[in-house]
Amino acid sequence: MGIQDIGGILWIVILFAVMYFVMIRPQKKKEKETKLMLAELKKGDVITTIGGIMGKIEDVKEEEILLRSGKVGNVNEQSVLRITKWAVRDVVKKAEVKQSAEPVVEEPQTEE
To answer: Which class in CATH covers the domain with range 42-96?
Structure first.
């Protein structure tokens, strides 16, 4: 085994390392982010599907979502679609967290 053979093997190893850092690693990171986004979907989120449909989530089940879509403010021109979770491309707006109706009461501090 000569120096040229080792050099050839070294180039192949370098090529695979570059391919890993340029192609494989970013793809795995994107997949992880997508899985996290799908797991965090909840009622009230506004989403876009891979087909370009925008709507507000009405209900989230294990593998599917009920999505209300159509003209805002006019119930007669809205429809409810049943889509699979994997068809969600992006969350446009997260659901607003409702604060409790009860005001937070702080206990008075006593000076000793």
So the answer is: mainly beta
